[in-house]
Fold this sequence. Notes:
It is a single chain. The chain is of the alpha+beta class. It has a single domain, classed as Ribosomal Protein S5, domain 2 (2-Layer Sandwich). It is 30% helix and 31% strand. The chain contains five helices and twelve strands. α2 (100-115) packs across α3 (148-162). The longest helix is centred in the C-terminal third of the chain and has 24 residues, at 235-258. 37% of the residues are buried.
Amino acid sequence: xxxxxxxxxxxxxxxxxxxxxxxxxxxxxxxxxxxxxxxxxxxxxxxxxxxxxxxxxxxxxxxxxxxxxxxxxxxxxxxxxxxxxxxxxxxxxxxxxxxxxxxxxxxxxxxxxxxxxxxxxxxxxxxxxxxxxxxxxxxxxxxxxxxxxxxxxxxxxxxxxxxxxxxxxxxxxxxxxxxxxxxxxxxxxxxxxxxxxxxxxxxxxxxxxxxxxxxxxxxxxxxxxxxxxxxxxxxxxxxxxxxxxxxxxxxxxxxxxxx
Length: 259
């Protein structure tokens, strides 16, 4: 049986479930899968976290070192985010240069941290124009069962919250926590069959006509949005998706209090 036929069968199955107000794993349309966040899981990193979102699993490591600032921001630290789709995480992933999906994940996570101002880059300046702290965030997807981006967002901020500036290593005094002042959370909503669904599974994400990612801060303000997919969304759908994302993000932030 061809992949196209299998996709069409899956599409029809999910569509029929949605007509009955159901999803393939029994969740409500506005319900996330179980979330697990562990921190300090990599002994050689300056900060780290493992996130499980249902069966989706990824590892985030943070490394920090001094270096030169960018010419246009001489008094601000540098943030560099990378994502790697490890071949063992999915049959679709292959070894080699970063795939488009990995680049997109890194870009959205990076933008969420920047636009939310959650990391105070000015406090990462050591000597203006000469030396600043460079923060490397590395995201490694271990298993893909859908919605990697939301899991990567959670893992990155969790790793930053536990990271410390390694000042002692460079003779600058005691290690201190990173200046993290907010918890931005990215939430993905997909549209399929006229319904809006939170936290798409691998199957749901593969056949969705469009998706909307909303990144919110702790006060509920929006710090980033990104739409993908070929189909359009109505104004009412956008507003509903944003409300769903805000409500879900508030619950996700409570998970960070348990870490």
